[in-house]
C-alpha cells in the first residue's frame, strides 16, 4: 500500500520562492569586485533570478544545458544559482584557481553554452575564450557602463544589460527532482578532472540536512558569511540552506584578507561563518595584532583540510566562538560529518572537550559511513582501527559526469580516498589519505596563482597573496 501524501518534486526554485514569500525582507549583502558594499533582499534576488531565467529562455537554451560561472561570492552569482537551476539548466561553477588550460578542458568537457564571469577574471576569459568551443555567450557580471569596449571577446554583454530588461515574472517549470541542477569538477582522483553532477533532489536534501542543529544549525536569526567559495561545491550548500531558513547572507566578494573579513563580520553582525583554515589564520592574525574582539560571531564551520587544534582553541577560548570542524568532499555535495558535542560531553573539562572537537565529527543524517581494511572487511568503531573510508547517501556521487572513470562505487559505497578512525560515539577522525592526490577545492584560497592566470586586479592579488601552487594535471 502506498502512502497517501502529496508527491511534490524537490526543486531548487522552491527555495527562492520560499525565501521570497517568508523572508522577503531578508538581507543579502555583498562586497563587490568594484569594492563597494551592495545590499538587496531575498525579494530582489527572487525577482532577478526570474529575470535570469527569462534571459536564458530568450537565448533558447535547452533543458539541461550548462551555464558556467567564473565568479566570487556575491548577489549576482546567487541569482544565477537560482535562475539557472530553477529554469532547468545546469549551473557549472568553474574554479578560477585552475590553470587556463584546465579551464578550457573542463568547459569543453562539460559543453558549457554560456559563461558568466566577474570582471576580476576578464584576463582568464581573454586567455581561454577562443578555445572554449561550445560557449556561445560571454556575460560579464557588471553593468553596461563597466563593460570594457576593447575586451576582444566577441559579443561580450554585461549581465545587467542581458537580464535587466527581462520581466521579473516567470513560472518556474516543474520537472523530475532527479534532474541535474549543478556541477563541479574535481581533480581529486587520477587522470583528467571529473565532474560531480548534483541533482535538485540531492541539493535540497543536502541543504536540509546541513541546516539542522547538529550540523550547521542555521536559522532566520543568523547572519551567514560563506568565505568558502561559491565556485567550489556550491559554497558547502550554504546559499541553499540560507534560502531554506531565511538566514541573512553576507558575501565577501574577492576580499579575503583578514581585515576585510573581520570588518564584514562586525559591520553585518555575522553570527555564523564558513571557511578553510588558511582564511581564519589570516583573520585571527589581524585580530591579534589589533587586539580586536567579535561582537556577534557565535560559530564557524571549518573544513577543507584538518583544522589545527590551536585554531579551535583560539576561536573557542579567546573569542568565545564555537568551531564546528567538518569534513566532506566534492563528491558528497560536500557535507559528510560535522563535529558537534553530545550531551555527555558538556560536563567534560576543556582538554577532554578538545579531544572531541579536533575530530572531523559525526556523520549527519543521510550520510552512511564505514571504514574497511585492505580486504574490504569492515573495521570496528573503536577510535583506534583505521581504514579506507567509504560513504553512501542521497547526496553522495553514484558516477561521474559522462561516466568518466567507470563506476567509482564498491558494492554501492563510494571510496573517499581518505583514511580514518571512527570512535564508539561515531566521531570520525581523518588520519591520512590513501592516494597521493591534489584536491581541487579544499584550500583554494592559498593556491590562486596570480601570475599564472595573469590577473593584475588588486583585489585578487590581495586575496591570493598568501601562496602559490600549480595544480597537478595528469
Ligand atoms: P575537495 O573535494 O576538493 O573539496 O576535497 C575533499 C578532501 O579534502 C577530502 O577528501 C579530504 O581529504 C580533505 N578534507 C576536507 N575536509 C577535511 C577536514 N576537515 N580534515 C581533513 N581533511 C579534509
Question: Any key phrases for this structure?
Answer:
single chain, binds adenosine monophosphate, alpha/beta, 474 residues, Rossmann fold
Radius of gyration: 21 Å
Low-confidence stretches: 440-474
The CATH architecture of the largest domain is 3-Layer(aba) Sandwich
Query: Which hetero ligands occur in this complex?
Result: adenosine monophosphate
Let me know the CATH homologous superfamily of the largest domain.
Answer: ANL, N-terminal domain
Strand order, main sheet: write it out. 2-1-11-10-12-13-14-15-16-20-19-18-17
Describe the sheet with the most strands.
Answer: 13 strands, mixed
Beta-strand segment tally: 20
Tell me the helix content. Answer: 25-40%
Structural class of the secondary elements?
A: alpha/beta
Strand percentage lies at 15-25%
* CATH class descriptor of the largest domain: Alpha Beta
Report the end-to-end length measured between terminal Cα atoms: 52 Å
User: How many structural units, i.e. domains?
Assistant: 2
Helix count, per DSSP?
15
Q: Any idea of the CATH topology of the largest domain?
A: Rossmann fold
Shape: globular
Look at the structure and give the mean pLDDT: 92
Amino acid at each position: 500500500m502506498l502512502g497517501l501524501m502529496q508527491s511534490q518534486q524537490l526543486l531548487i526554485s522552491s527555495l527562492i520562492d520560499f525565501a521570497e514569500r517568508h523572508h522577503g525582507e531578508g538581507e543579502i549583502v555583498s562586497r563587490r569586485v568594484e569594492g563597494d558594499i551592495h545590499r538587496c533582499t531575498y525579494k530582489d534576488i527572487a525577482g532577478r533570478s526570474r529575470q535570469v531565467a527569462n534571459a536564458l529562455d530568450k537565448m533558447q537554451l535547452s533543458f539541461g544545458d550548462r551555464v558556467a560561472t567564473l565568479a566570487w561570492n556575491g548577489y549576482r552569482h546567487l541569482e544565477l544559482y537560482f535562475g539557472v537551476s530553477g529554469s532547468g539548466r545546469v549551473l557549472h561553477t568553474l574554479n578560477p584557481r585552475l590553470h587556463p588550460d584546465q579551464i578550457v578542458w573542463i568547459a569543453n568537457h562539460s559543453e558549457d553554452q554560456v559563461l558568466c564571469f566577474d570582471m576580476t577574471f576578464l584576463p582568464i576569459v581573454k586567455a581561454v575564450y577562443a578555445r572554449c568551443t561550445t560557449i556561445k555567450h560571454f556575460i560579464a557580471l557588471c553593468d553596461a557602463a563597466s563593460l570594457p569596449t576593447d575586451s576582444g571577446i566577441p559579443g561580450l554583454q554585461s549581465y545587467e544589460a542581458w537580464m535587466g530588461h527581462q520581466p521579473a515574472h516567470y513560472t518556474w517549470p516543474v520537472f523530475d527532482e532527479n534532474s541535474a541542477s549543478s556541477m563541479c569538477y574535481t581533480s581529486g582522483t587520477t587522470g583528467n578532472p571529473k565532474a560531480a553532477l548534483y541533482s535538485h533532489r540531492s541539493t535540497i536534501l543536502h541543504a536540509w540536512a546541513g541546516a539542522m542543529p547538529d550540523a550547521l544549525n542555521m536559522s532566520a536569526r543568523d547572519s551567514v558569511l560563506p568565505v568558502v567559495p561559491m565556485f567550489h561545491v556550491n559554497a558547502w550548500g550554504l546559499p541553499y540552506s540560507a534560502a531554506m531558513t531565511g538566514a541573512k547572507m553576507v558575501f565577501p566578494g574577492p576580499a579575503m584578507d583578514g581585515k576585510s573579513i573581520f570588518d564584514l563580520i562586525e559591520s553585518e553582525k555575522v553570527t555564523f561563518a564558513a571557511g578553510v583554515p588558511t582564511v581564519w589564520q589570516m583573520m585571527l592574525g589581524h585580530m591579534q595584532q589589533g587586539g580586536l574582539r567579535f561582537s556577534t560571531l557565535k560559530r564557524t564551520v571549518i573544513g577543507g583540510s584538518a583544522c589545527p587544534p590551536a585554531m579551535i582553541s583560539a576561536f573557542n577560548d579567546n573569542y568565545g566562538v564555537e568551531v564546528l570542524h567538518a569534513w566532506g568532499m566534492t563528491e558528497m555535495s560536500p557535507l559528510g560529518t560535522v563535529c558537534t558535542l553530545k550531551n555527555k560531553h558538556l560536563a567534560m573539562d576543556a582538554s577532554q572537550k578538545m579531544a572531541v572537537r579536533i575530530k572531523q565529527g559525526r556523520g549527519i543524517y543521510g550520510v552512511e559511513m564505514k571504514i574497511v581494511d585492505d580486504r574490504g572487511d569492515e573495521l570496528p568503531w573503536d577510535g583506534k582501527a583505521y581504514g579506507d573510508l567509504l560513504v553512501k547517501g542521497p547526496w553522495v556521487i553514484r558516477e561521474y559526469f559522462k561516466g568518466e572513470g567507470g563506476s567509482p562505487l564498491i558494492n554501492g559505497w563510494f571510496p573517499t580516498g581518505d583514511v580514518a578512525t571512527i570512535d564508539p560515539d561515531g566521531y570520525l577522525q581523518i588520519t591520512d589519505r590513501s592516494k597521493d592526490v591534489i584536491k581541487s577545492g579544499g584550500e583554494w584560497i592559498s593556491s590562486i596563482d596570480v601570475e599564472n592566470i595573469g590577473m593584475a586586479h588588486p583585489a585578487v592579488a590581495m586575496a591570493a597573496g598568501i601562496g602559490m601552487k600549480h595544480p597537478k594535471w595528469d
